[in-house]
């Protein structure tokens, strides 16, 4: 911990505890777990290893805070979020340093994520005042019909390690703007980013109990997640993570009929047609594929290239991949950091070996290195039967697949249970519309490799999840609609009646 603290301008961002009811607290069991630097394997420090009793305390704090927070004027809720935004941006370098140390992504990427995370605080600070109901045309002159929107209540937010700041604010900002209180369970690999955000929320004036953080190890994750799902006082669950875990949490929430938002795994096709601007396609591919060493839910996973440009596209990709530099995320010039764990590196290794066994050709990279590093890798002659085409990789692997026709590209792209993001490169306007509409995905980037934004609705279809985050639609996930029918009694005599 001392080594990490020594890198920070403001060491108080790293508090020794989780955050419950406005205070930094240990686990009731007093247990802790170690947090590792994935690039070196060294111990960064320890965080509270919380369990069911700690969840109970956090939910009690959140429920008590909710009663008063929901009554605060929307303008005041927005002002608090705006102060939180200002503090995140003014502490951008420290937050990025913490993030890089925990999850390994290069420091420039971490800085960009901090700004992205802050954008949700800013956006929903403004959106808090735009929650509106409706006056409907009544069925008779003696009635008036209204709908209003109210905060759903205590919300549990379960977030991943690959975007440890942005996935918290993308959920917490709309929830708090709507008038909800939240209990955040960050990933076991990245608790310090969540704790630093909690400290900044305290400084911003987020009331005690409105924002809570419960940290735990992988061994206690099922207990903590199960407790949040089973608690009747928790009215909403938002989860970002694997499809398998998302299904489990969804099933556990059925017992209390919680509202559920799920952002799950992807298997994004990146389709390059003969008429595409290849230089732009390569730029988009590099931005999408290698961000966070390929460990993003929307990163290009299957690269579909039309026959006419397959060889040229392959050449351009290899030229660009050769320029990438592996290293510790805090080292100057690093563009590819480590994978998050041994399991993550092993998955990429298995996919490479499977592709080679089935006829794929490794034309660059292909080797695992020490401390969970894996070389940026390009494989050609990939077909849909290979693991790298069937499964989400979550690593720096570029599998290049051939296709002949537009119909074939769409068929291959849609042949998956996932449906989060897809990418299309073409100069043909008609084709861009046809293919975008035919793709079974919640988000499509046309001639663009980076599609995430605070103003855009983020989410998938099929087994990639439910609901949307970000944009004006994101706050709706934390609101309930209530219908009010007002009887007026007898009309005043002598006045014209309602039409």
Can you give a write-up of this model?
- This protein is of the alpha/beta class and 499 residues long.
- It has 2 domains: 2-265 and 459-482, Aldehyde Dehydrogenase, Chain A, domain 1 (3-Layer(aba) Sandwich); 268-415 and 421-446, Aldehyde Dehydrogenase, Chain A, domain 2, CATH 3.40.309.
- It is built from 16 helices and 20 strands.
- The chain has a 7-stranded mixed sheet, sandwiched between helices. The chain has a 6-stranded mixed sheet with strand order 9-8-7-10-11-19, sandwiched between helices.
- Helix 2 (52-69) packs across helix 8 (218-230), helix 3 runs antiparallel to helix 5 and helix 8 packs parallel to helix 9.
- It is globular, with a radius of gyration of 24 Å.
- It starts with a helix and ends in a 12-residue tail after the last strand.
- Pathway: Amino-acid degradation; 4-aminobutanoate degradation.
- Belongs to the aldehyde dehydrogenase family.
- It is found in: Mitochondrion.
- It is an enzyme of class 1 (oxidoreductase).
- It catalyses: succinate semialdehyde + NAD(+) + H2O = succinate + NADH + 2 H(+).
